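> tool_call: predict_assembly(chains=three)
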Amino acid sequence: MEKLSISAELAPQIFSVIEQIPYGCVASYGQVARLAGLPKHARLVGYLLKRLHPQSDLAWHRVVNAQGQIQVMQLDAQGQNIQQLKLCAEGIIVYHGRVNLNKFAWQV
DNA sequence: GATCAGGCTCTAA
DNA sequence: ATTAGAGCCTGAT
């Protein structure tokens, strides 16, 4: 196989996977990476999301770490966690900064 | 080309 | 439950 370039080839693929996360479900970075064909690039997913998320339609808030915990703590003007608010808006319960993966994890 | 950092993950204590 | 160390890979300096 030729050399893979994240920005050029895998990024759209990763975003595509994230777009497939159903409403009311969450997926871990590792899971997204794995579905995108990048079993060990969990960090890349986060890295890319970090650069892409503002004003993006991408459901980056449905992506959490392997333990279902919110890692970014990005606050809005009201000092509340944006990701948590978005998840709550979808019916995903965020308790103590984390979601119940047993209930909300995206089952492929 | 070497070095550093990152929204991770796993295992162990 | 929490902390610490190591592994993994890429993008940016």
